[in-house]
Amino acid sequence: xxxxxxxxxxxxxxxxxxxxxxxxxxxxxxxxxxxxxxxxxxxxxxxxxxxxxxxxxxxxxxxxxxxxxxxxxxxxxxxxxxxxxxxxxxxxxxxxxxxxxxxxxxxxxxxxxxxxxxxxxxxxxxxxxxxxxxxxx
Amino acid sequence: xxxxxxxxxxxxxxxxxxxxxxxxxxxxxxxxxxxxxxxxxxxxxxxxxxxxxxxxxxxxxxxxxxxxxxxxxxxxxxxxxxxxxxxxxxxxxxxxxxxxxxxxxxxxxxxxxxxxxxxxxxxxxxxxxxxxxxxxxxxxxxxxxxxxxxxx
Lengths: 137, 152
Description:
The structure holds 2 protein chains of 2 kinds.
Chain A: H1 2-26, E1 31-37, E2 42-51, H2 56-69, E3 73-77, E4 81-84, H3 86-101, E5 106-111, H4 113-121, E6 129-133
Parallel strand pairs in A: 2-3, 2-4, 3-5, 5-6
Antiparallel strand pairs in A: 1-2
Chain B: H1 2-20, E1 30-34, H2 41-54, H3 59-80, E2 88-94, E3 98-106, H4 111-114, H5 118-126, E4 129-134, E5 138-146
Antiparallel strand pairs in B: 1-2, 2-3, 3-5, 4-5
């Protein structure tokens, strides 16, 4: 009797795990995940989806709140960042300005070529520390 | 894959050559009316990249068109949403060797004040031509991208 219950529950949790994992993988909407890396003393941020006028304010508020919580370098993983517009670039510059005041930097990792091009044409590629493209080159 | 794209673009170019003989009423035009709400800029991006892809533009050019159209919508929503809540119109007009995107909105702003904003500079860098005409009642932005195969 207990064994049957245990098996039912196991199957249920495995199903929930895969459901949530796939939902996250296919969710193309904007999301931002943050985590403080105690070992290296920096913020690890992962931005997913498209950032434009609609949600660039959310991104700015979230990143500025990180610096308020703890002043440290911010590492942004851009491998799932599909699109960024001028308002989002402006938001990143505002956060960078705040970080630089406390002698910290923003590092952008695994930037896709289309986004890297936008940083290049706006001459912002020098301001941010851009490390490697999405293929890890 | 490459050959297929070449054939497709050849067929497209023939169809657009034929289209040149058509008068304005017969010309293929795609019109998209969007509300003055930033939530729908992604719809403009999806539509523009789909149309540009259909016309045989390369991946990078499709990205350029998508970004420029998105920036144009952002500009309009950012500057006009306080003046009017009326929807704005995006008109895509494919031609033999280029794609023109017309953006029309009711109202007036002093464009000279904003011409050095990042979004406008990005549009100018990504498109072949960016023109703005503004009257007392209507603001019009024209973005044109030439097909790289035909561009000099």
